[in-house]
Design brief:
Elements lengths: L1 H15 L5 H11 L2 H9 L3 E8 L2 E10 L11 E9 L8 H15 L4 E7 L3 H9 L3 E10 L2 E11 L1
Parallel strand pairs: 3-4
Antiparallel strand pairs: 1-2, 2-3, 4-6, 5-6
Length: 159
């Protein structure tokens, strides 16, 4: 649990802390990555967390949701990629490409017709990454960082 809490907080902070109000951001971190919240997510049989190691070091993690564990779409024929983060020290090594391909292979082998994710509309680097991997925008939804209402693009990949 401690490893999941630490990698979740670290990677999310590295990615978004500088672009958000400090109070809203601190509130979000405390709620989203608390021991209680992560325990609920880990205990959900329709949620799976994965750690990625390179040469014995934790370098990334991701989270997949199916069925009712999905945050928005909640269809049985799809999987949500809710989180995918590579630790800052290991970015630029093409790990994200390898991880996304592994996820695609897994979701396809699970006989899903598509996978989807939410990505902050103000994160052009991530949007471009997903587009390179065949994802396309199909909608949007609100995403709150504390009291700050932001917009996530919903992107999907069809099998």
């Amino acid at each position: 649990m401690e490893v999941l809490m630490s990698v979740s907080r670290t990677t999310f902070s590295d990615a978004f802390q500088d672009q958000n109000n400090p109070d809203d951001f601190a509130s979000y971190l405390e709620k989203a990555f608390s021991k209680e919240q992560l325990t609920l997510e880990l205990e959900n049989p329709q949620t799976q967390f994965y750690f990625v190691y390179l040469e014995g070091k934790l370098v990334a993690y991701f989270k997949l949701n199916c069925g009712d564990a999905q945050t928005d779409v909640k269809q049985e024929d799809c999987t949500e990629l809710e989180r995918i983060y590579v630790l800052k020290a290991f970015q630029g090594r093409q790990l994200g490409n390898q991880i996304v391909q592994w996820i695609k292979d897994k979701v396809e082998s699970d006989k899903k017709s598509f996978m989807w994710l939410g990505v902050w509309e103000k994160n052009p680097r991530a949007i471009a990454f997903y587009e390179r991997h065949g994802f396309y925008k199909f909608g949007s939804h609100p995403y709150y960082i504390g009291n700050d209402k932001q917009t996530d693009w919903l992107m999907r990949y069809d099998f």
